[in-house]
Amino acid sequence: MKKFNPIPWTFSDIINALNLREELDVYPGVKTGENCRPVFSGVSTDSRSIKDDELFLAVKGENFDGHDFIEKLADRGIKGFIAQAEFFDNFVEFIENNRLAEKKRSAEENRSAGKNKDDRSCKNHDEKQNKKSVFKEGITLFKVDDTLKALGMLAKFQRIRSKVKLVAITGSNGKTSTRQMTSEIFKTRFNTLTTTGNFNNEIGVPLTLLKLSYEHQWAIVEMGMNHKGELSWLSEMATPDIAVVTNTAKAHLEGLGTVLEVATAKAEIFDFVAKGGTAIINHDDKRWKIIEEKAKKNSGIEKIILTGTSENSVIRAESIKHISQKTCFTLAADNPYSKVNICMNTPAVYMVTNAIAAAAAAFTAGLSGNEIKKGLESFTPVSGRMTIKESSKGFFIIDDTYNANPDSVKGALETLAELSREQISFVVLGDMLELGEKSAELHFKTGRQAALSGVSRLYVYGDMAEHIASGAVEAGLEANRIMKGGKKEIVDSILGRRDQPAWILVKGSRGMKMEDVVLGLI
Fold first, then answer.
1. Three-class SS state of 385
2. Fewer beta carbons within 10 angstroms: which end of the chain, N or C?
3. Looking at residue 112, which CATH number applies to its domain?
4. Is 61 helix (H, G, I), strand (E, B) or coil?
5. Shared domain check, 393 and 366
6. How far is CA 115 from CA 112, 121, 124, 126, in A?
7. pLDDT digits (tens, 9 = 90+) for 266-298
8. DSSP 3-state assignment of 296?
9. 481 to each of 458, 464, 489, 494, how far by Cα in Å?
10. Total H helices, total E strands in the chain
11. Nearest-angstrom CA–CA distance, 267 and 26
């Protein structure tokens, strides 16, 4: 895909985007001609990768503070910074004091010009003391109350002036895959910007939007969340033309409480959909009505599209089946009427839900059934999301280690059962994080599901291992077919059984780093 340069930032752009007062919120405060003011090629929050002509925005995180890097970056030649008020005020005071000291020193040098040059060592000392004021010359510093809020304001400004059309995607499961599929489809016709990696939070989303250029026609933006209000703010800065909720599940319960509250929070993505926009909702989701009601509250949303596997869904999947390690189905749409057969490069049947959500967005944007087919059949899951790896040690490994919650584990177990058939199947499960007060109960139920899915052996790792194991035993899996242990112990135990070919599912929350098990088995 062709790479386009982001829209650059003039001095006036920054002032307008952040609603700043030039006399009070910018250093230096002396007005200059427009031609003398800086122009920045982009905005960066990363001191390690910032380009020389970019503007540095100092974000405060849990484990770092971007303000700590400003001095070194200024020394390196970075010319523009956005900082919070406390840093700005201290900086200006420091510079002005150094200017006065420099002025005083110069006057004293002039008075002592005829003195013996033995004072040179003192002069060198003075120069070292004043070095900090020298490297700050030529930089521009912008003052804001909250740099994280400022990042979102810059992103919103960029999104508006780019005049791009935008698809925003969220959901408890499948948002990354849906974003990938949507991007694959849209780029068959349009210059498309898409979220990369896990840039889907209140820092990642604005950084994605800041990459917009005048050449882009569509942006496909993934949005995550773990607390109320987060998606509403992301929706405000992105103002999507099409907003998608893939599903709701038992995820982020620690921050939200119940799955109903999860549904309400996910539906915040509809808060700032642009006038004439479209809401796409998974009709198969048990909480679809809650999400639909939220969408209806935005009078700007012109159309609500229900997707799913039932006949009542406007865009739906029919005749779903496995062919080898692919998932095939017929995509059917009522308006515009279309039927097209699609085979995707994934064994996971639940990926079909993501595919029809992506197709709904594409139909809304005017893409054809053939373009949708081409895009979906080009889709390849990223590592850690239902990717199959053949081990040199005789195993087929289903790597689904990117993240986990009860519903996604259930889907992964179903895929394992379908692929392994009569062969031996092992499951390696790590803890599912952020489940709140019901964590023990939900892990117990997951253990039951693992046992009922017919697995040959179960390996569990983490603080919740005992609860998973107990659930599996309660559902009939013999205790001697369950192992609780560390990741290395689990790998060693599985490798000790390599005399028999087996399918192995490895899954757990991101924080559990279950990919270590996959690497050990390969």
1. coil
2. N
3. 3.40.1390.10
4. coil
5. no
6. 5, 14, 16, 17
7. 999 999 999 999 999 999 999 999 999 999 999
8. helix
9. 6, 18, 15, 12
10. 20, 22
11. 38
Place of tokens 């939220």: 294
Does residue 2 lie within any of the structural domains? Answer: no
160 and 130, same structural domain?
Answer: no
Q: Which of 504, 501, 432 is nearest to 465 (CA)?
A: 432
For 6-19, what is the mean pLDDT? 96
Query: Is pLDDT above 60 for 119?
Result: no
Whether 124 and 256 map to the same domain: the answer is: no
Structure tokens at 367: 């893409």
Task: Report residue 404 CA to chain centroid gap.
Answer: 16
CB atoms within 10 A of CB 271: 19
The single-letter code of the amino acid at 185 is I
**Same domain, residue pair 330 and 400:** no
The reply to whether 114 and 157 lie within a common domain is no
* Structural domain harbouring 347: 149-378
CATH of the domain at 321: 3.40.1190.10
The token pair that represents 515 in the structure block: 């990919």
> How far apart, in whole angstroms, are the C-alpha atoms of residue 274 and residue 224?
20
The answer on pLDDT for 45 being more than 80 is yes
